[in-house]
Design goal:
heterodimer, A: alpha/beta, Aspartate Aminotransferase, domain 1, Aspartate Aminotransferase, domain 2, 2 domains, 7-stranded mixed sheet, B: 140 residues, Sufe protein. Chain: A, two-stranded antiparallel sheet, 7 helices, 2 strands, globular
């Protein structure tokens, strides 16, 4: 097994955020006459110049279809595409690149599993999810249940937005076929106790899928140490391009699961008498893949590892603490989601002010946040609210961004009261 | 110049008083504070305007050759937009409402400053008003 590459993992040191911000041309612009405070990275992060350059370089010099050409460009494109797969393998410490399937994103990865794993699901089988999930980790399972007669079991949460582990343990049983739970909640930022979740499922021999979309940008993720069966994440939330994502699965699972889509690239031989499927991971990559997206994602992995995931986590944690104290200290603000362990997200409401109105005024102060239900309507329903204002962080955020948010909130309070 | 054109011209003039968008938003928010009362039992599903991210209900009334309406929203900014629509359209002749072009949207700059979802919502409200005006004109 290959160790995680050097992540400068001695003691976490303060990031030179001013220098890192210069890697992101988009952050240098003015919005409505103000410095841009981009606090919407949970929806989609920004891209550093090196990722933009990698995609551009690929199109300018190396593009051809992968895996089948004998000519130089096809060889280069294949090397770059497969090189990106190896970078992703290292990033999450998978055992082999055979376990790394490129998809369109987290949603696509979860749908892949629901479609493929779902072929073996029968009426009365149970899928366990949590009340915290993003719609993309709810709807594919609801569709599977509708198709098969399986039952969706939902682990409740407490008032802080934390999964109730006692309830989780009581839901695991002989009919449970899969546990599908977010690593980090997109709406509230709760870091779920995935080690315990996996260990408990393991006792019942139940496989576990982690939705890692909101985890991989913020902390070191090691799928081998976690011992999860499946892990899904998106490129665009971790400085990579849109339209590229990853479905990790243990090799034994990928061998067992039937293919998701049919087409070119996923086959070895095709005749009208029958078709033999390609080797892993290509069995799950039908059609010409998003080559440029994968290469851009590989460049994003290089960039993040060069900064160091532990350094990123330490910096973001400090900024989140600063923001939580500053925003939470404003009269009329209610924080939504106050879990003990959180990453990257501050969700809140301002008394008597619709979140969209708040977002509009903040935008005119140069502050970009997300407002609404964050594709997690059950979470909003649990708290009895229509939505929240959500400020979300990346390592390129600094105290100045939070100070600008606070100024914007005070401006909004003056305007709406 | 018909009544709606005159109302639009007056509205556009009002917005010229402000040289930045925070002040314009403040004006919109303030306009929304004075909406007429909209009783809870008017908030029925058939009066819901879809296409808005916030909740909006619209109640129209066709009488004496005029279409008047009231509306309500849980958003202060949308309430201000409702107040603007009332100034432009409410109490006017239905034929004029159907024929009117909402020139104030671009003239004020709402098209550039509202989010796409808000613009959709504004268009949904205008369509509902025009639809009611069409029915009102046919009835009259």
């Amino acid at each position: 097994m290959t160790a995680i590459p050097d992540q400068k993992k001695m003691t976490p040191t303060a990031l030179d955020v001013d220098r890192l911000r210069q890697d992101f041309p988009i952050l240098a612009q003015k919005i409505n006459g103000h410095r841009l405070a981009f606090l919407d990275s949970a929806a989609s992060s920004q891209r550093p110049q090196c990722v933009i350059d990698a995609v551009r370089h690929y199109y300018e010099r190396d593009h051809a279809n992968v895996h089948r050409g004998v000519h130089t460009l096809s060889h280069r494109a294949t090397e770059a595409y497969e090189g990106a797969r190896e970078k992703v393998r290292q990033f999450i410490n998978a055992a082999s690149t055979r376990e790394i399937v490129f998809t369109r994103g987290t949603t696509d990865s979860i749908n892949l599993l629901a479609a493929s794993f779902g072929q073996d699901i029968e009426a009365g089988d149970e899928i366990v999810i949590s009340h915290l999930e993003h719609h993309s980790n709810i709807v594919p399972w609801q569709m599977l249940c509708e198709r098969t007669g399986a039952v969706l079991r939902v682990v409740p949460i407490n008032d802080r937005g934390e999964i109730r582990m006692d309830e989780y343990l009581s839901l695991l049983g002989p009919r449970t076929r899969l546990v599908a739970i977010s690593h980090v909640s997109n709406a509230l930022g709760t870091i779920n106790p995935v080690e315990q979740i996996i260990a408990a499922a393991r006792e019942h021999s139940i496989p576990v899928l982690l939705d890692g979309a909101q985890a991989v940008p913020h902390q070191r993720v090691d799928v081998t140490a976690l011992d999860c069966d499946f892990y899904a994440f998106s490129g665009h939330k971790m400085c990579g391009p849109t339209g590229i994502g990853v479905f990790y699965a243990k090799e034994e699972w990928l061998e067992r699961l039937p293919p998701y889509q049919g087409g070119g690239d996923m086959i070895l031989t095709v005749s009208f008498a029958g078709t033999t499927y390609n080797d892993l991971p290509y069995k799950f990559e039908a059609g010409t893949p998003n080559i440029a997206g994968a290469i851009g994602l590989g460049a994003a992995v290089d960039y993040l590892l060069d900064i160091g995931m532990d350094e990123i986590q330490a910096h973001e944690s400090a900024i989140l603490d600063y923001a939580t104290n500053a925003v939470g200290g404003i009269d009329g603000i209610q924080l939504v989601g106050t879990a003990e362990h959180k990453a990257g997200v501050l969700s809140f409401n301002l008394d008597g002010v619709h979140p969209h109105d708040l977002g509009t005024i903040l935008d005119h102060h140069g502050v970009a946040i997300r407002t609404g239900h964050h594709c997690a309507m059950p979470v909003m329903e649990f708290f009895g609210i229509a939505g929240t204002a959500r400020a979300s962080l990346a390592f390129y955020n600094c105290r100045e961004d939070i100070d600008q948010l606070i100024e914007g909130l005070h401006l909004a309070i003056r305007m709406f009261n | 110049m018909n009544e709606i054109e005159a109302a639009q011209a007056e509205l556009i003039d009002d917005f010229r008083l402000f040289d930045n968008w925070i002040d314009r938003y403040q004006y919109i928010i303030d306009l929304g504070r004075d909406l007429p009362e909209f009783p809870a039992d008017w908030r029925t599903e058939d009066r819901r305007i879809h296409g808005c991210q916030s909740q909006v209900w619209l109640r129209t009334d066709c009488a004496d050759g005029r279409l008047s309406f009231a509306a309500v929203s849980d958003s202060a900014i949308v309430s201000g937009l409702i107040a603007i629509l009332m100034r432009v359209y409410s109490g006017k002749r239905p034929e004029e409402i159907v024929a009117a072009t909402p020139e104030f949207i671009a003239a004020i700059g709402l098209d550039a400053h509202l989010s796409p979802t808000r613009s959709n919502g504004l268009n949904s409200m205008i369509n509902a008003i025009k639809h009611a005006a069409g029915a009102c004109a046919d009835a009259g």
